Amino acid sequence: MFLDRSDLIVHNPALLGYGVCVTDLDDDGAFEFFVAGFDCANVVLKWNGSGYEARPHHTLAAPNRQAIGVAAADIDGDGREELYVLNTDTFAGAKRFGDQLFAFRDGAWCDLFTLDENVGLVNQVAGRSVAALDRRGRGRYGFFVANYGGPMRLYENLTGTRLKDAAPDANVDFVTGGRALVALPLVSPPGRMDVFAANENGPNYLFQNLGDGTFDEVAAELSLHDPFENGRGVAVLDADENGRFDLCVGNWQGEHRLFLQSPLGGFLDVAPPEMNRPSAIRTVLAADFDNDGYEEIFFNNIGEPNRLFAYRDGRWTRADIGDADEPDGLGTGAAIADLDNDGRLELLIAHGEQDPQPLSLYQTAPNDNDWLRILPLTPFGAPARGAVVTLTTRTRVQRRAIDAGSGYLCQMEPVAHFGLGAARGAADPVEQVEIVWPGGARAVIESPPVRDTLRVPHPA
After folding, report:
1. Which of 64, 399, 423, 435 lies deepest, with the highest CB count within 10 Å?
2. Residue-wise burial string across 14-33, b where 16 or more C-beta atoms lie within 10 A, e elsewhere
3. What is the mean pLDDT of residues 346-356?
4. Which among 366, 408, 342, 322 is positioned nearest to 130, based on CA atoms?
């Protein structure tokens, strides 16, 4: 499946890398990779037309911190995403290095937690993952932080640069061994973002959005709590094509899960034996890498071979992973994006923890399969993370949730990427694309052109 294209990274030294996210840091309309550095500078990679070039930035680099988790979202409605960097210098509980929340103000990046009005709010608990959450559907996000040994946090913008921890108000300030987060309309209607949290040394949580800005924890009653496993990566996909989102959950050295959502309510683990088999797992990704019209599931392991699964003839089977096997790779985080705009997704893997290693970049071989990419925007012009995009052809329906926080440490590009299969000109034509934003606004695009990325403004 994958070809090693790490040679496209212009300068690629060994580093202790962790989480990866995709956002537009220089506000030029194109996305970049941001890689969290532990005891080293954070890395920004930008496509320059022929390769991925590191773009040093003094403020965002923060070389004296220990960054692991990262996510982006527009928290103040200015149309530009802010960046939350989670630092962790201890396994659990109180830590030395607080988190950072970078915002672009007056022509420069600044850390909002260093301002007088926010100093008392900085997260000083060891955390792991961050996700963007628009709990009221207004186009303004908060940063949901999965802490380990301290209450979960939900940072929202009040006015100007002033922040608030809204977790107590939203009823999500639980204390657990927080590891992974995803945020999307999972069991609530489209337009309401729920939060699934995979935890360690305790049950998972599913915070169901009640529609009034508060949440109810319902994991146990929906059979998602899995109390005897230790969660790591989580990926969201419609794994059985029944119109409902499902969860693929990687558990550290435990049995991995493929939780399918029943139309009657609740989830059932149907992971086949090869997918279920325990491993030292970190990130789990779901995406259509070869544009055949069906998503693949990628398991990024640390210190042992990665795994790839494909949906073939109505079932999930192990697939040839190609160059991305990485048997000696110390994988810590991974993200997907199409930064070079060729219609094929790139897979960037960060390594570290035990020893510094360079980043890895993978692509699939070129093919003639058609594709379509949808980038919904908020009323303020920022990526609409948490929106649901449905693509309909004559024979199939595909669904994607715009990524708000992708499992463990990472966040994917805020684009719904659809492979359409078949050779060019022979693919099943796209009849319709429907987008439902957080808050419930809806738009329909009839017969859109393929092989294009469509930026779709909010209907308001």
Report:
1. 435
2. ebbbbbbbbbbbeeeeebbb
3. 96
4. 408
pTM of the model: 0.97
Which DSSP helix (H) or strand (E) runs through 34?
strand 32-37
Contact in structure between 280 and 252 (CB atoms under 8 Å): yes
* pLDDT band (50, 70, 90) for residue 89: confident
pLDDT tens digits, 311-334? 988 899 999 999 999 999 999 999
Q: CA nearest 21: which of 77, 75, 86, 65?
A: 86
Closest CA to 249 of 180, 202, 317: 180
Q: Characterize 383-414 residue by residue with b for buried, 16 or more Cβ atoms within 10 angstroms of its Cβ, and e for exposed.
A: bbbbbbbbbbbeeeebbbbbbbbbbbbbbbbb
* Cα–Cα dist 395/97, whole Å: 53
pLDDT number for residue 265: 87
Pairing status of strand 315-318 against strand 67-73: unpaired
CA distances from 193 to 182, 196, 381 (A): 10, 10, 19
* Alpha carbons 175 and 54: distance in angstroms, whole number: 38
For 175, other C-beta atoms within 10 Å of its C-beta total: 13
| 178 half-sphere exposure, CB direction, 13 A CA radius | 32
Cα 344 to chain centroid distance, Å, stands at: 18
Tokens 């810590």 appear where?
Answer: 332
Could you count the other beta carbons within 10 Å of the beta carbon of residue 107?
Answer: 5
For 88, 176, 241, the CA distances from 199, given in Å and listed in that order, are 16, 7, 27
d(CA 353, CA 350): 10
Q: What CA–CA distance (Å, rounded) separates 128 from 353?
A: 14
DSSP 160-190: TT-EEE-HHHHT---EEEEEEEEEE-SSSPT
DSSP 221: G
Tell me how far apart the alpha carbons of residues 27 and 37 are, in angstroms, rounded to a whole number: 22
Residue whose entry in the numeric block shows the structure tokens 């794994």? 239
32 and 339 in contact (C-beta within 8 Å)? yes
Residues in the chain: 460
Q: Which residues contact 342 (CB under 8 A, 6 or more apart)?
A: none
Which distant-in-sequence residues (6+ apart) come within 8 Å of 71 by Cβ? Answer: 21, 83, 84, 129, 130, 131, 132, 143, 404, 405, 411
One-letter identity of residue 283: T
